[in-house]
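User: My instructor asked us to take a sequence, write out its structure as C-alpha cells, and then describe one feature of it. I'm not sure where to start. Here is the sequence I was given:
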Amino acid sequence: MNYYQELKKYLNNNLFTSYSLEIDFPNIYNFNANQKAFRDILTKITKIYDKNKFIKQNEHQFEDEFISKVLEILGWYFVRQDEKIIQGKVEKPDFLLFSNEKLKAKYENLDKETKKSSNDFTIILESKAYNIEIDNKKVKDNPHFQILRYLGNLKKNYGFLTNGRFWRFYDNSILNSNKVFYEINLEKIIEDQNIEAFAYFYSVFSAFNFTEKEDHLEITLQNNKLSKIKIEDDLKSIIYGTNGNESLFEFIGSRIYNKTKADLKLIYENSLYFIFRLLFIAYFEDKFEIILEKHKYFKSKISLRTLLENLQEDESSSGGFGELENIFNIYNKGKGNFDMPVFNGGLFDESKTALLGTPKIFNDKDLKFILNQLLNFKDKNLSFKRDYKTLSIEHLGTIYEGLLSYFFEIANEDIYYVSYKEKSKEIECYFDNYDFKILEKSKKVEKYTFYKKGQIYLKNTSNSRKASASFYTPQSIANF
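Assistant: Let's start with the prediction itself. The C-alpha cells for your sequence are:
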C-alpha cells in the first residue's frame, strides 16, 4: 500500500522530504501493523468532532471541547495557560505537553518561581479558535510567529500549532530563512475517514512519538536530514557528472553542439541558462504546489511535470521542446489569458539563448531524459519525486557557482573519463587511450565514459568534473 499517495491531498509540508514520508515513516512507525490502532484512534476523534458547534465557540471553549480531548486521545498530559517569565518577558502558551504522567508530576512539583522559567516539558502547543487561520501572512499577530517566539524564548526545539482543522509541527532546531513546517489537514481526514493519511497525523502528533524510550522523532528527523543531503548531493552529481553519473550539463551541451557547431563559450552559456531555467521552474512548482493546484491553467498549460508525463521517448519528434519554449516565453513575458505574471530578472530572456532557437535542438527522447533527471530522484531502483521545496536557494546557488569552474572542450583524440580508487580514495579524471590502458592494469577502475575524437566533453582546470570553488553569481540568476 502506498501511504504517501493517500497523504498528498491532506499535506502542506516543506520539512520532510518525499523520500522520508514515503519510505521512512511507514517503516519507523510500523504503519501496516498499526492499522487497527489508527482506525480506533480516528474513530475516537471523529466522535467528538462537531464542526457546526465549533464555528460558534471562542478559543477557550474550543480548547475545552476539542483540542484538550484530542490531546488526551493522543496520549498527552498537559498544563494549560501556565505563565512563563524569561528575561523579564512574560509568555503564556496555551498548552505545555508532557509525554507521560511522571514528567508532568515532576514539573508540577517545582516551586512557583522555578516553574516560571522552567522548560521541563516535552512540547509547546499553541491553539486557536476554529475560525482563526494559523498563518495569516501578517508579521504582527500571526500565530505562526507566535509559536516560533515561544520556542525561541523557552529554548525548545519542537512545537505544535493548531486551529483543530490544521495541525502544524515545527522543528526550530535548525535556522531557516523560509517558513518550514509539517502541516496536515485533520478535518479533511476526518471527513474522508482516510486511515492511511491519519497514520501520518498520529505518527507526528502523538505523545508516543516523543517518548525517551522509543525516540521515534529523533530517528525520523535524522533520517530526514540524511535524505535531504542525499537528494542535494544527487542533484549536484547528475548535473556535474560525478560519483558515477553522466553529466546532464554535458548532455545538454553536446546536443546543442551537435545541432549548431557553435563556439564552445556560447554553447556553455546557452546550456547554463537552459538548465537554470529548468531548475527555477522545478523549484517554483514544488514550493508553491498547493497554490498552483488551485490555478485554473497552470497544471494543464505551464507545468514542467505535466510536460514530462506527456512526453514519449520519440527521437523523430521535437514537439516537447516546442511546448517547453512556450513555457519559457510565459515566464519571460507573462500570459494574461493564463493568469501568469512576468517573472523579472532576465533568466528567461530569449536574447541570452539564441542557440536554443535552433530547430529540433532537443528531440522528445532527449527532453524526457533531461526532465526526468531533474524532476525525479532514484534510490535503489525506486523513483521518487525530487524535492525542491526542502532545498534552499543557497544550495541551487552553489550548483551554479560550481558550474562556473567548468568549460567545454573538443576531444582532439579518443579519451576516457575514469573513476577509480587509490588508497581507498575515489579519483575521477580524464585519460588518453594509452594512459587508460596502463591504468586498467594497475588500478581498479570503477566506471569510465568513452569520448571519440571530435566529441564535446565537460571538464575543469583540474582535468576532472569535480569542483570546489566559489564564484560571483550574476544578477539574472540571483534574482530568482
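For the description part of your assignment, you could build on this observation: The first strand starts at residue 11 and ends at 13. Try explaining in your own words what that tells you about the chain.
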